[in-house]
Specification:
The protein folds into three domains: 277 residues, Nucleotidyltransferase, domain 5 (2-Layer Sandwich); 79 residues, ATPase, substrate binding domain, subdomain 4 (Actin, Chain A, domain 4, Alpha-Beta Complex); 66 residues, no CATH class. Helix content is 33%, strand content 29%. The strands form six sheets. Strands 1, 2, 3, 4, 10 and 11 form a six-stranded mixed β-sheet that branches. A six-stranded mixed β-sheet has the order 17-12-13-14-18-21. The longest helix has 26 residues. This is Molecular chaperone HscC. Keywords: ATP-binding, Chaperone, Nucleotide-binding. GO terms for molecular function: ATP binding; ATP-dependent protein folding chaperone.
């Protein structure tokens, strides 16, 4: 049977996995690592570099490099690097193509099909852009699944007989998702989901970067233009400090010169964990609303969740863990590597599609993360006002699903009508995402 690979297409890093010998397994890349940085660059001789090789040029030639482009998925924005112009979909396809090649080298055969994960709060445009990226990479995208759902599949696969109420907190490099679910007798039932597509570990790094630059009497916006090599190398130092502060009580950040070179006697900026917690506080507070929303919609009290599962490398930060610990009153669960759990779950989903005997007793249901509806005209006396939104399938409805809503025509004897379909929670269609017309 031709394998279906599972791919975690992340903001900062991407991973690939396959289900074989009854287990989900991570696939190493050409460098022997299971983690491939979601970075691309154009070399001086016009070659496209992906992953670790591209990440190295991020410091020395940032103008030839692109990263964090997952945040641009579903938009028309273009990025110019090394004299070439790319959309986020095209850049993502290059990462996917690299993962496909790694999988083929590992398996010793051609790979055509894939499961790709996305943040639960990705809208329809972003999901379609992800699917298009897969197709550009030569992959038949069998299914797009939500990252927290994939993570839960990993936990459910290893503990499928348990009856538990779970909530998955997924803070990646650029996005944040919360998903509540119940597991019973091998069935994984998603109950509610919420999130924010512009909040992730990169934002915490940027807070450190701004603090250090300010201490050097430099403003971020000006430094990025006048001293790009300084900023790119310093950001690398800030990223390392952020990771270090998850384990240590303080970290030293070396300051490169204005040309971006790290001199032997380079100045250092010492940041304590308490100082970082203070810097991170505004971002941590932004976690509260999606978490509260997912909990409220699940109709499960915070203290009644049996486990709080952490997903994404950014959940290693004590600022994040401390907040989650306080919110739920329990120690968060992290028995699986938070960087790897989504890709492994995508491989489990692939096994479900292929009816693998190892998962024959597993069932999964998911929900619609956004409300779907249509545009209607409302009457106020004799006055008709268009642009109103009629919700038809409400968010967190279990899918697949069908709904009916009866509406009248505008004119007598009207024989046809245009149905505009939208996604979102706003009262007016202008506040929602237009999907198409029927």
């Amino acid at each position: 049977m031709t394998p279906i690979i599972g791919i975690d297409l992340g903001t900062s890093n991407s991973l690939c996995a396959v289900f074989e010998d009854g287990q989900p397994k991570l696939i190493p890349n050409a460098h022997g690592s299971v983690i491939t940085p979601s970075v691309i660059s154009i070399s001086a001789d016009d070659r496209v570099l992906v992953g670790s090789a591209a990440k190295e040029t991020r410091v020395t030639q940032p103008e030839r490099c692109a990263w964090v482009f997952k945040r641009l998925m579903g938009t028309d924005r273009k990025v110019e690097i090394g004299g070439h112009v790319f959309t986020a979909t095209e850049m993502s396809s290059l990462v996917l193509q690299s993962l496909k090649q790694d999988a083929e080298a590992y398996l010793g055969l051609e790979v055509h099909d894939a499961i790709i994960t996305v943040p639960a709060y990705f809208n329809d445009h972003q999901r379609n852009a992800t699917k298009q990226a897969g197709e550009l990479a030569g992959l038949n995208v069998r299914r797009i699944i939500n990252e927290p759902t994939a993570a839960a599949l990993t936990y459910g696969f290893h503990d499928r007989q348990a009856e538990k109420k779970l909530i998955v907190i997924d803070l990646g490099g650029g996005t944040f998702d919360v998903t509540a679910m119940e597991v019973f007798e091998g069935t994984l039932e998603i109950i509610s989901t919420a999130g924010e597509s512009m909040l992730g570990g990169e934002d915490f790094t940027d807070r450190i970067l701004a603090k250090v630059l300010t201490a050097q009497n430099l403003q971020v916006e000006i430094a990025e233009v006048k001293h790009p090599l300084l900023v790119s190398r310093l950001k690398q130092e800030c990223e390392a400090a952020k990771c270090s502060l998850a384990r240590e009580t303080e970290a030293k950040i070396r300051i490169p010169n204005l040309q971006g070179k790290m001199e032997a006697d380079a100045a250092t900026h010492t940041m304590t964990r308490d100082e970082f917690l203070e810097l991170a506080d505004p971002l941590v507070k932004r976690l509260a609303r999606p978490i509260a929303k997912a909990v409220r919609d699940s109709r499960i009290a915070p203290q009644d969740f049996d486990s709080v599962i952490l997903v994404g490398g950014a959940t290693r930060m004590e600022a994040v863990r401390g907040f989650i610990r306080e919110f739920f009153g329990v120690e968060p669960l992290c028995t699986h590597n938070p960087d790897e759990v989504v890709a492994l779950g995508a491989a489990v989903q692939a096994a479900l599609i292929q009816d693998d005997r190892a998962v024959e007793d597993m069932v999964m249901t998911d929900v619609c993360p956004f409300t779907l509806g249509t545009e209607i005209i409302k009457e106020f006396g004799r006055r008709q006002v268009n642009g109103y939104y009629l919700p038809i399938i409400h968010r967190n409805t279990t899918i697949p699903v069908s709904r009916e809503e009866v509406v009248g025509t505008v004119e007598p004897n009207q024989r046809e009508m245009t149905v505009n379909v939208y996604q979102g929670e706003g009262r007016k269609v202008e506040d929602n995402l237009f999907l198409g017309t029927m």
